[in-house]
Amino acid sequence: MSEAQEPMSVADDLVISMEYELTVGGEIIDSSKETGPIDFLQGRGNIIPGLESELYNMALDESKEVIVQAKDGYGDVDQSRIVDVPKEEFPPTISLQPGLELQMKDEGGNILHARVVSIGEETVKLDFNHPLAGQTLHFNVTIVGLRNPTDEELEHGHAHS
Questions:
Q1: What does the CA dihedral 89, 90, 93, 98 come to, rounded to 10 degrees?
Q2: The CATH number of domain 15-74+133-153, selected from 3.40.600.10, 2.60.40.420, 1.10.3720.10, 3.10.50.40
Q3: For residues 77 and 97, what is the distance between their CA atoms, to the nearest angstrom?
Q4: What's the pLDDT band for 4 if we cut at 50, 70, 90?
Q5: Domain 79-127: which CATH class?
Q6: Are strands 82-86 and 38-41 parallel, antiparallel or unpaired?
Q7: Is the dihedral of CA 40, 69, 78, 120 positive or negative?
């Protein structure tokens, strides 16, 4: 495809601009309404696989409802990622309560996200799964932009909008 030729539908290695609304169990979890559409490079894994695969061949201004099962979204809940951590490992300044979301670092300095599940006498149960793991995701999407990527976007594997 030459650079002068405008893309007509969603295909690999095009920059897609998409408005969306995500609901889980009938509750709106995320939406582009406030922040504007998201831009991503199709076919490069920039969005969850179950959504990305359903966008192929959609045209500009086309809307679609997409249901993504857990395995094609954020995965199933992995029980090995729910762990008990000794209470003494938490600073006393943290008010621990179920549902609290924490950022922690592992031994390698990598940032990990966890959610407090419960608090016992001596341990705190933390869930390191993605908050939407195990959930069926309902998307309403509209393609609002299609364009050819720059050479730099292709090289980097993501949109630079």
A1: -160
A2: 3.10.50.40
A3: 21
A4: low
A5: mainly beta
A6: unpaired
A7: positive
Condensed to tens digits (0 to 9), the pLDDT of residues 23-76 reads 999 999 999 999 999 999 999 999 999 999 999 999 999 999 999 999 999 999
pTM for this one? 0.83
Quote the mean pLDDT of the chain: 94
Burial 25-57 (b: 16+ CB within 10 A, else e): eeeeebebeeeebbbbbbbbebbbebbbebbee
Give the type of residue at 149: P
Residue 129 · residue 15 · CB < 8 Å: no
Percent of the chain with pLDDT over 90: 92
From the list 39, 49, 45, the residue with the least C-alpha distance to 17 is 39
